């Protein structure tokens, strides 16, 4: 079972395995007990996948999909045509959806459909019920002489 502690330990081991000379960063040697107390590392295949994904990533962090080596001017004509066709299709879909929602809104405003009254009825019954219970409990306590009123001392 993968626990958060094992996952953090595996991440630390992954980072440490990427560094070429870990001992040059510290003046003391890592003891065997320290190594044995660390959580189990990730399986080798998963660690290799993570390392290759990290090394092959050309993401510049802006989320636009362009790598730092590419520029907007170097995009090919076919890519631009494909993107413009996709944009046109998305705009057409959006305008069709807007037209459908406008038609449905106008149809629902013209016809007086029965509204769902569950929430207002439930609220009204709840308020009346709790008020009645509170009043009953007050009368019960008053009749037994157990009702505390701060102004009656």
Automatic annotation (TrEMBL):
Q: Does the keyword Transmembrane helix apply?
A: yes
Does the UniProt entry include the keyword Transmembrane helix? yes
Q: Where is this region: Disordered?
A: 57-89
Specify the signal sequence span. Answer: 1-24
**Parts of the chain that traverse the membrane:** 117-136
Q: Which UniProt keywords apply?
A: Membrane, Signal, Transmembrane, Transmembrane helix
**Composition bias, kind Polar residues: at what positions?**
68-79
* Protein name, entry field: Uncharacterized protein
What organism does the UniProt record list as the source?
A: Cyclotella atomus
């Amino acid at each position: 079972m993968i626990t958060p502690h094992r996952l953090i330990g595996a991440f630390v081991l992954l980072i440490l395995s990427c560094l070429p000379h870990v001992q040059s960063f510290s003046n003391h040697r890592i003891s065997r007990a320290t190594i044995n107390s660390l959580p189990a590392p990730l399986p080798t295949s998963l660690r290799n996948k993570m390392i290759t994904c990290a090394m092959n990533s050309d993401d510049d962090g802006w989320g636009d999909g362009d790598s730092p080596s590419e520029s907007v001017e170097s995009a090919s004509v076919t890519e631009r045509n494909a993107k413009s066709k996709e944009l046109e299709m998305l705009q057409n879909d959006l305008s069709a959806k807007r037209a459908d929602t406008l038609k449905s809104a106008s149809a629902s405003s013209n016809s007086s459909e029965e509204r769902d009254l569950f929430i207002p009825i439930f609220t009204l019954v709840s308020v009346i019920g709790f008020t009645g219970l509170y009043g009953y409990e007050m009368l019960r306590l008053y009749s037994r002489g157990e009702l505390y009123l701060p102004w009656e001392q």
